[in-house]
Design a protein that fits this description.
Largest sheet: none
Structural class: mainly alpha
Strand content: under 5%
Number of helices: 12
Protein name: 4231_t:CDS:1
Distance between the termini: 30 Å
InterPro entries: DUF924 (IPR010323), TPR-like_helical_dom_sf (IPR011990)
Pfam families: DUF924 (PF06041)
Number of strands: 0
Length: 204
């Protein structure tokens, strides 16, 4: 598949004709957070693409060279593995480092400033890293995104900002995400076990 076609396909599926300044629709948020049918769609249409990237590092250098392409590449590497390989170590082990590399590149070159507030949410979401510095950067970026977004998107951008802060607080406390321990074959500490009994944590 050509990189241009891959970009168009991902953008069309993920944003569904969204234009900056237009209200967010239930169809959009269902795609972003719904699972189920979305998992099946991603698996049918992008599992082979992700396997090609995992084995050959295809598309990465070509697609990270522009803001729009870097955005869709980040979505492909950060979001789709969570749909396709749900409840496995693969997203964290094999694709998060690649998504983080693209996100760092895009932010270093200020590509995020050329995207709208809703698009930027999914560039900054690639900060699923267990690095404290990445988490600090993520909170700063989500805060800036919320403060500069159109009022129409204030509720959505604030929720992502709060979500980023909750991620950072977990890393500050444990140095990692305890919710990943079982999947990654890590032994949980007593403190982590107690935390997991009461924590209400959305996503990993």
């Amino acid at each position: 598949m050509l990189a241009s076609q891959l970009h168009r396909n991902i953008y069309s599926f993920w944003f569904k004709g969204f234009k900056n300044g237009a209200p967010l629709t239930q169809d959009l948020t269902k795609t972003w957070f719904g699972g189920g049918e979305v998992d099946n769609y991603c698996r049918a249409n992008y599992a082979a693409v992700l396997e090609d990237i995992r084995e050959n590092r295809s598309y990465i250098e070509e697609m990270k060279q522009s803001p729009e392409y870097a955005l869709t590449l980040t979505i492909l590497l950060d979001q789709f593995p969570r749909n396709i390989y749900r409840k496995t170590a693969i997203p964290f082990r094999d694709f998060d480092p690649l998504a983080l590399q693209v996100a760092h590149y895009a932010i270093n070159y200020k590509f995020d400033e050329k995207l709208n507030a809703i698009e930027r949410l999914f560039l900054y979401m690639a900060k699923h890293s267990e690095s404290n510095s990445d988490q600090e950067s993520s909170v700063e970026k989500f805060k800036w995104n919320h403060e500069t977004a159109l009022p129409l998107y204030a509720q959505m951008t604030k929720s992502f900002y709060e979500y980023a802060k909750s991620h950072k607080s977990i890393i500050d406390q444990f140095g990692r995400f305890p919710h990943r321990n079982n999947i990654l074959g890590r032994e949980s500490s007593i403190e982590e076990i107690e935390f997991l009994k009461t924590a209400d944590f959305f996503g990993q």
